[in-house]
Amino acid sequence: MSTRVAELPRNDHTASLGEAGPAGETAGAAGVWYWRVTAESPRHEDWALLGEAERHRAGRMRDERSAAEYVGCRATVRRLLARILGGDPAGVPLGRRPCPGCGSREHGPPAVLLPGGPCLSISHSGGLGMLAVSRTPVGVDVEALRDVHVTELAGVTLTAAEQQVVLVMPEPRRTRAFLRCWTRKEAVLKAVGVGITTSLTALETSPGRRGPVEVTTDIASPGPVPWRVTDIAVPGGWVASLALPATAGGTVTVQAA
């Protein structure tokens, strides 16, 4: 699997990602977009694009900057999907698939609620938003580089092998390596469809290796399932990872929205 930068697909009102992959790629490919969120309060034009559940979630947030980031990211996701699928951003049927663990749609992975619609994954952190779109299950996670108490968190987030690699590193490499482990793990759990509902120490992400790496989990499946995790190049100040099935082929495209 290779990674390259490609142009955003244009809105031709004919092709959906259920039939043709991002930027016309072959089955298993993914398109990844990232963007900055700079508003300090939710913008009216972004708020107007959100669905009822999204507005309810944003309204429960006490921190206005966090609400602005959430609203801005969800609005950008809808604009991008409208350009890919055709139609109006406010009309994109964005919802959730059932959680593979419990069957609930309250916390299942995001999805375009169309027959044969694409699989999605959404992430945002510290003013950067990301969207991954694929015809196969996909997970993306981004984390802002920031002060992290790595030694305190290592025991509940890293495997013994990961700790041996990460904890001996000097700063700031230690924090970056820790966040690389975190984004790789969360990308896989998002691709599975359950999110962080299990012990992160159950996933081995090989922090000493540059991506792509293979991460195996039996969460929500009768046996071990391998996932191919790629480190996504984003602007300095963030770390991001993308997970796709290990059997997926094709090219991953990455670009600024």
UniProtKB/TrEMBL annotation:
GO molecular function per UniProt: holo-[acyl-carrier-protein] synthase activity; magnesium ion binding
GO biological process: lysine biosynthetic process via aminoadipic acid
Disordered: annotated segments: 1-24
4'-phosphopantetheinyl transferase domain span: 137-240
SUPFAM superfamilies listed in its UniProt record: 4'-phosphopantetheinyl transferase
Record keywords: Transferase
InterPro entries: 4-PPantetheinyl_Trfase_dom, 4-PPantetheinyl_Trfase_dom_sf, P-Pant_transferase_sf
GO (cellular component) term, any one: cytosol
Family under the similarity heading: Belongs to the P-Pant transferase superfamily. Gsp/Sfp/HetI/AcpT family.
The name this protein goes by in its record: 4'-phosphopantetheinyl transferase
Organism: Streptomyces lucensis JCM 4490
